[in-house]
Design a protein that fits this description.
transmembrane helix
């Protein structure tokens, strides 16, 4: 995620890196679904909120709802996805921390 933020200094490379970051996080999120029985309830709740936000963002993207936000393209194309990515990073760090405590 930090690499993507640094690459945003050259907007184009940041947007490109964000595509790979998003794909990696969605695949990682799908992978985590196989281990739900090992994840504490608190983190499961965060994971559910993550998937809800991903699905809502994806639905807005698929139905071209962002066209009506063209004045807010930075928000809809950069800030919201990076916010979702930040939240997913928080979830992964929580899982990592929980793993070291057990």
């Amino acid at each position: 995620m930090l690499t993507t933020l640094v690459l945003y200094l050259t907007v184009f490379w940041g947007l490109l890196a964000q595509i790979f970051l998003g794909a990696f996080q969605v695949l990682t999120g799908l992978f985590l679904l196989f281990f739900l029985n090992r994840i504490p309830e608190k983190i499961k709740k965060h994971l559910m909120y993550y998937w809800i936000s991903v699905l809502i963002y994806g639905a807005f993207y698929l139905i071209n709802k962002f066209e009506s936000f063209e004045d807010y393209w930075v928000l809809s194309i950069i800030l919201v996805p990076m916010g979702i990515a930040g939240y997913f990073t928080y979830i992964l760090e929580s899982i990592k921390k929980q793993g070291y405590e057990n």
